[in-house]
Specification:
The protein is mostly beta strands. It is built from 3 helices and 25 strands.
Length: about 325
């Protein structure tokens, strides 16, 4: 199945049509990441006399730069939540509405103070724009993988406005021995918000059946344990499945349904229960938001991916969360 599906076609698939579900893959699986203690990083401001490009010092002009000090001297991911204070309002709003790629990084030395030029401390850095649909809740998340440990375990922000203590409000966190830059944005959101991988958020099953089979045609029958026809099954009827065998689905008590083009096996249903969240987000195979399902609007689930996500077919997926209910 092509990834470039129309929204109308895919919406039908998610809600009810038959198609072959695909497994979602990614370079770094969220499920393989162990939950590690998140450390708060300390905000540190430095100041010094202004030095121009020719090396001339101006003692009466002060330069400033902000750094973030980690508790442990380890490689890892330094995450900075940046919210506007007095930084240029028009610039900040332009970032949001254009979904701009903001250039930012962490430096091993203060940037601009005493004439120092930025020297990167990261192997990779990127910026996530968060809550861009809300002017009030929007903020920028700077994600940098620290691969050069400095003597004072402090890494300085190289970003427009970082030379003014009134530009931004910051919250900084450090995740030792993990590179979150290799995750997709959706997986990174899940890890940062919950501090654990997605598999831990999938409800533990309290049922004995392993899935369901949907009857799509009008000629499907239910067989008894002796192999005799017990009754004709209704179109769109669903039965619980306790075991999947080569040519049949065992539906309990020795009764079974033969596999055919008119049967569709699936894992269960998911929906948003609206506890603190309004929608259930469906992501496409490129890890981009495809569609928001309304509260209580259900989607079939065809299994759990290796990344610990709900596979809703065609490589599309839903991230397990506290507001997503799974019904088997």
């Amino acid at each position: 199945m092509k990834n470039t599906l129309s929204k109308v076609a895919l919406s039908a698939m998610l809600v009810g049509s038959s198609f072959a579900p695909l497994t979602v893959t990614n370079e770094v699986s969220a499920a393989s990441v162990q939950s590690l203690p998140k450390q708060e990083a300390k905000e540190v401001w430095v100041e010094g006399p202004h030095v121009d490009e020719l090396g001339r010092e101006y003692p009466n002009i002060k330069d400033y730069n902000v750094g973030f000090q980690t508790k442990s001297a380890e490689k890892g991911t330094l995450i900075l939540e940046v919210r506007r204070n007095q930084f240029c309002a028009g610039c900040w709003e332009n970032y949001r509405i254009t979904n701009s790629n903001i250039i930012a990084d962490y430096s091993k030395v203060p940037v601009g103070v005493n004439g120092n030029k930025a020297r990167t401390a990261t192997s990779a850095s990127l910026t996530d724009l968060i809550n861009t649909n809300s002017k009030e809740d929007y903020y920028v998340r700077l994600v940098g993988h620290i691969n050069t440990i400095t003597a004072n375990q402090t890494y300085y922000l190289n970003m427009m406005g970082a030379d003014d203590p009134d530009s931004y409000n910051f919250k900084a966190y450090f995740y030792p021995n993990i590179d979150l830059t290799k995750m997709s944005k959706s997986d990174r959101n899940q890890y940062v918000v919950n501090g654990k991988d997605t598999l831990e958020l999938i409800p533990k099953s309290n049922v004995t059946h392993i899935g369901r089979v949907l009857i799509k045609g009008t000629n499907q029958v239910l067989y008894n344990p002796q192999g005799k026809v017990h009754r004709i099954l209704r179109q769109n009827e669903g039965l619980r499945v306790y075991e999947v065998q080569n040519d049949r689905y065992q539906v309990g008590g020795g009764y079974y349904v033969m596999k055919s083009k008119d049967t569709l096996y699936y894992y269960g249903h998911i929906y948003s229960n609206e506890k603190g969240y309004k929608y259930m987000a469906i992501y496409n195979p490129s890890n981009e938001l495809f569609k928001n399902f309304e509260p209580m609007q259900t989607s079939r689930v065809y299994g759990i991916t290796e990344r610990g996500l709900y596979n809703v077919g065609g490589g599309y997926y839903v991230i397990p969360a506290s507001h997503i209910s799974l019904e088997r």
